Amino acid sequence: MAYSIYWGAFIIPAFEPLYSDELHGTDYKIFFYLLSNINYTNNISSIKQKDISQELNIHKTTVSKSLKKLEELQYIAKVEKFNGYMINPNIFYVGKNKADERDKIRDEFDEIVISNNSEVRFSLIEYTGVLNDNNR
């Protein structure tokens, strides 16, 4: 597999919810698979559930349950128009070296969450390095 060189960044305070939420091995595997297929311009992994299932050799029902859990915990949000999932940029983002670009992507994620009648869970205050988690 060939990789183009690009960088991604986890927000350090995001590790606490990642290890304390009720995620299991398959959930992490799918989450990292989505991260490995992320588009650096919009934080979206345009990949179908059946492709995840085939690529990772995980039953499609299990993939569906894990994606639902990741969505409920707001690590990802389903993006119909891109046929994929947006990774929460309050937790992980790629290739954005300007704060206003990162803010724009975080706002887009929040709009998706709100449009799904959910309350935004994470909010990053970048200049202080504080990640607010409304579930805690």
Describe this structure in words.
The chain has 136 residues and is an alpha+beta fold. The chain has one domain: Orthogonal Bundle (Arc Repressor Mutant, subunit A), CATH 1.10.10.10. It is 41% helix and 18% strand. The chain contains five helices and seven strands; from the N terminus they run E-H-H-E-H-H-E-E-E-H-E-E. A three-stranded antiparallel sheet has the order 2-4-3, sandwiched between helices. A two-stranded antiparallel sheet has the order 1-5. Helix 2 packs across helix 4 and helix 3 crosses helix 4. The mean pLDDT is 91.
Summarize the structure.
The chain is of the alpha+beta class and 136 residues long. The chain has helices at residues 15-20, 25-36, 49-56, 60-72, 99-115, and strands spanning 8-10, 44-45, 76-79, 84-87, 92-94, 122-125, 130-133.
Record the SSE blueprint.
Layout: E1 8-10, H1 15-20, H2 25-36, E2 44-45, H3 49-56, H4 60-72, E3 76-79, E4 84-87, E5 92-94, H5 99-115, E6 122-125, E7 130-133
Antiparallel strand pairs: 1-5, 2-4, 3-4, 6-7
